[in-house]
Write a structure and sequence with these properties.
The protein has 12 helices and 2 strands, in the order αααααααααββααα. By secondary structure, the chain is an all-alpha fold. The chain is globular. Bound molecules: Phenylacetyl coenzyme A.
Length: 328
Amino acid sequence: MYGSLSIVEYDNHGKKYHEEDPKKLAEFEARIERGEKIEPKDWMPYEYRRQLIRMIEQHAHSEIIGALPEGTWITRAPGFKRKLALLAKVQDEVGHAQLLYSAAETLGKSREEMINDLISGKSKYSNVFNYPAVTWADSAIIAWLIDAGAIINQVTNAKGSYGPYCRALERICYEESFHLKYGYDSVVHLATGTPTQRKMVQDALNRWWTPIMHFFGPPDKVSVHTEILMKWQIKMASNDAMRQEFLNMYVPKIWELGLAIPDPNLKKNANGVWEYTEPDWNEFMRVINGDGPCNKERLAVRRVAEEKGRWVRKALLSPNEKYVTPLA
Ligand code: FAQ
């Protein structure tokens, strides 16, 4: 379906634009200017649809792959209450993927195509989930600071122009806010605990700082899609603006816990802008293009899930046929 919409050849970064009817395009842009939501059956430019599919699909993939680093800690969570909370959080993340795949489907790309593009390595997903959760403290840092970053992004973009994406984001944010509280509680517990616990959480923060700085995307001056995404109000703040917001909200909270941030140049300048050492953007490019510490492992897990779940999907689609389960 999505493929059939293509009339003009596009490069991977949307540089060539579909020749749209100027009148329709002007009406569409006026609707966005007025703050109206665009709904699936409304006319929209080809490039608006293409960009939304790219972004929502990557977001959905990030949620199901994002369940994996923390998921590895469910069996080893320290205590029953932490285990229950983590189990519920991981389930929520997978639920977010479902909401987001549904939002992307409204634009004409099927879920099967999206999953195939994920497991073949064609589609991207968030850099952060290609790093291992080495200790329990890593899972706490993920639940606090990665969820914090995700909330900043999602609360902002929930005010955007595409109805189904905004509604999905709004709902996701309620759950993410709860995850953040769980993550903060886990980090506080470790940071105010024994010297061993404090060291464990400090080491985890050291490991995660660079991936977190990468999380908001490349600097604005090199970001490929920001301009068009902001023009059409898909993205409501730039990568650097979101990174600044994160630093503004969370650096004081991290310092308050007596934890050190592994960047000697991090400081707020006289204009209220955070200055920091640029994280290694070559590492970012390697990780998002498939060569991070866990990329292969993450996709391998999804491939197995896809294969093992095939009989269930078939059975759901044609309930009158008899299937022999792989366990039978
Ligand atoms: N990771 O031109 P820009 C979560 C790619 S959800 C990987 O600046 P854009 C919940 C980008 O795709 C986390 N790739 O791109 C959770 C593009 O590549 P392409 C996910 C990245 O779109 C918590 C290229 O670099 N959230 O965490 C990243 O304007 C805890 C050029 O970049 C979303 O997806 C990255 N970090 O801005 C779950 C939110 N950054 O497609 C479990 C929706 C950039 O040309 C546990 N997405 N790239 O091949 C967005 O807001 C935007 O897409 C950005 C990137 C801000 C991520």
